[in-house]
Amino acid sequence: MKNKIYRIFTILILAAISVAYSFTQFTTPKEKLTAMDCTEAANTTAVSEFEPTIINKNSAPSQTPKGMVWIPGGEFSMGSNVEDESLCSIKGVTKDASPVHRVYVDGYFMDETEVTNEEYAKFVNATGYVTVAEQKPTQEEFPGVPAENLIAGSAVFSPTTAAVNLNDFIQWWSYVGGTDWKHPLGPESSIKGKEKYPVVQITYEDAAAYAKWAGKRLPTEAEWEFAARGGKTGNLYSWGNTLKPDGKFQANIYQGHFPVKDGDAGEDGFKGIAPTGQFKPNAFGLYDMAGNVWEWVNDWYSPSYYTELSKGGKIARNPQGPDAYDVPNDPEKKRVHRGGSFLCTDQYCTRYMVGTRGKGEIRSAANHLGFRCVKSL
Ligand SMILES: [Ca+2]
Ligand SMILES: [Ca+2]
């Protein structure tokens, strides 16, 4: 039975979650470290690799769609040269965000916040759309999985009862039947009263379907990062280079002992997910570009894409990501996630750093994964 369950995990969870946390190279969890300890060792960015951001001088369009802001576009240095998974120097695989390379993007509108439950409900009410997590998995998609295991559901963070080695994320993720965007923590949970919270348990196709209905689209990875950097150059975070300027958290992340039950101290004001827009926006007026929920972008994932783009030293103009997903020995098709989530801690998964990347299997979802949209002129 364990193997069968694992097969479900392999398809429905492993792909989506492992990637966001890139668990494979962890060896030395520093369980006693706190946010404060790690912050002391914060900035390992060699700013010299970043050349100044040049913001387009075009004037903002006269009309801005409600809930969006104008991002003027321009030229910037994209990526990260922080190769450790965490600020505590646990060696990891954020190397996929290097090398830092030069990119140009045209201007666009972007949602100020992550798409909320209220907004997603409007889409579902208007169209009758059924998300992937609400659909019973089919034998065609999961050959070899016994029929009794093919139940509609999704991945839910399930804290451990005691400290664990951080090398196996299945210890703190569960596949829970009856989980979907309206029941993000399992069938007994609900989004009642959570209209302004980001919608979660959303797969790539669920996000893309919403965007199409709204007359928008998902951002490219380059558009997402240009926007997140807020016109600044080479910063570690979307707000600057210090995790807690003046001692104040700037994003909804996780403080304390990950992934233990009641381990999140909530020093930033939130244990777990928060309503959108609870922290200061970045310089472009965008909220939660770090933390709260991971956000789908449109690009297929490739760990070598930045290396390819940087070849020849040319400026990549409006890069759209690789033509297809093609990663050796990893058949689960993945697109990029950005920004980290409320589960990211400086012990583990510091992907709230603005240049770093996550990724997820396109038909997988979780309770820390949502999206926001953009719109071209
Ligand atoms: Ca928090
Ligand atoms: Ca976010």
UniProtKB/TrEMBL annotation:
GO molecular function: formylglycine-generating oxidase activity
Organism: Flavobacterium cupreum
Alphabetically ordered keywords of this record: Signal
The keyword S-adenosyl-L-methionine belongs to this UniProt entry's keyword annotation: no
One Pfam match: FGE-sulfatase
Name listed for the protein in its UniProt record: Formylglycine-generating enzyme family protein
Stretch forming the signal peptide: 1-22
Domain (Sulfatase-modifying factor enzyme-like) ranges: 66-375
PANTHER family associated with the record: FORMYLGLYCINE-GENERATING ENZYME (PTHR23150:SF19), SULFATASE MODIFYING FACTOR 1, 2 (PTHR23150)
Domain of life: Bacteria
